[in-house]
Structures
1.
Amino acid sequence: MIKNENILCVSYTSWEGKYTKSVVQLMSLLARENKVLFVEYPYTIKDVVYGLLGKNDSPALRILGLKKRLQVKKTSFGTEIYNWVALPVLPSDFIKNEKVFRWVIRFNAFIYRESVKWALMKLKMRNPVNVNAYNPYYGLSLIGKLKEKANIYYCYDGMNTERQGNRAIALDQEFSRKVDSIIVTSDYLKQQKDRLNSIVDTVKNGVDFPVFHKAAKTAPHNGRTRKKIGYIGSVDQRFCLDFVEYAIRKLPHYDFEFVGDVRNHIIQERLSDYPNVKFFSPVEPNIVPQLLHNCDAGIIPYLPNEINKNVYPLKINEYLAVGVPVILTKFAELKEFEGIARFTSTKEEFLEALISEIENDSVEKINARIEFARGNSWENRAELFSDAMEKAIGGK
């Protein structure tokens, strides 16, 4: 594991939240031997207003400087990281005119960059290793401005062109060419980034195995009259509604439970009409293992489209760590899970796999899933991430 480094993580996410975030897990573990500064998502003035009105979870008072921008966060791994909230920037995604958009981005980048430099100075963090977590917009403005040892792009998803337009792809590609190395989370992403940078490493998502293993099943729920199918995570545009609705309709004696934010309300409207369907609000990550323990199967029904080819779902290892059967659509190349999870291409296959995996579950299969997930712990992933960071530093 890399040691005695100053690690700056410029993130496109917040530290807090209802879902497990790979960057949070990895930085928490790297903090065992290094000083880590995690810079929050670049909040906008709009985020401040909505936060004050209670319409979102943004830390409005910290953004405004009315509470400490710099805080120490204790992690689930027993480590501590420094957490910084930068000055607010102007909203930009809605801007259609490219010249105006570029001007706003340059202005925002200046504000963000100076705020990051102030945090580094305050913590006396010199020559940081700059890990940019899916934030190329602001990453471009930081390259060469921090006397950094290396610039590493942690790219864990494809760019969202629906929200940010084709400009997102252009900025992502420009940033990918300029950094010292890229770390990706899927084989498909690696294929894309290999065209843009000579050093690309794959570190796939993991699982907090000790936490999930505490809730692991020891045997199938054979005594149940009604089987339970679980889904943990956002219900959004990735979701394959047709497959899931078909299974719900054909299995009225099975209960389907969805836990997470509903971002595509058409899905909830259609599925809520079925008496064997329930939707629940997001829960804290430490509650998820017990919810999965009570399930007879877990599903990951994503649409097989271009954006989902980038995905290595966090939840697959979480399902397996508890021992539940996993049924997926063939939305991405996840060859390492063949034989341990069921992949389906049609709604009929999806239905058959659900029935078969539940009805034919066994103690042996449960134990095999758990042992497979053990090898995908966040500790193991952090070691790989550390190796990739050392390669970038050495290459520089």
2.
Amino acid sequence: MLSRPHRWLLPLLLCLPLSALGVSQLSPGSGEPRQTNVSLGEPKLADKLVVKKAERKLYLMKGNKPLRTYKIALGYQPAGHKRSQGDGRTPEGRYFLDWRSARSNYRKALHISYPNGQDMLRARATGREPGGMIMIHGQPSGRSNPKSGDWTFGCIAVSNMAIDEIWSMTTDGTPIEILP
């Protein structure tokens, strides 16, 4: 029972969703508990993105826990690290989101900081340019059905719904790790 000085809390607690109090809810029709991801005071921003190319997945991370998982499409030559402009590969390594555009040929685009110094040295050692403009983006503007398979020139493509969520849950400067 609440002590007298804390009785004012009871009406407030009764207005909160059960998930905010750490209580599981029952899934409709199953009688089984379902966990919800809502908690009080937890920021909705991801602190890192992880891309697993082999799985074709992008994870929005908060600490060591994924907040969201998305299916992705990669460059048309997805195996290996991007070596040079036009190779159709998606880079691998640690980068960050450094700017964003709501006006592109795709529904929203988040720029990845590729190439870094190492990428430039590696490409130029072979007499080539490293390329650039590697983005996480939605589907092509004006297209009614989504593209499938690995179709980009090295970018990471997601659904339009996914890019809207990723856009709202990240800021410029958010780190991204792209794994094989």
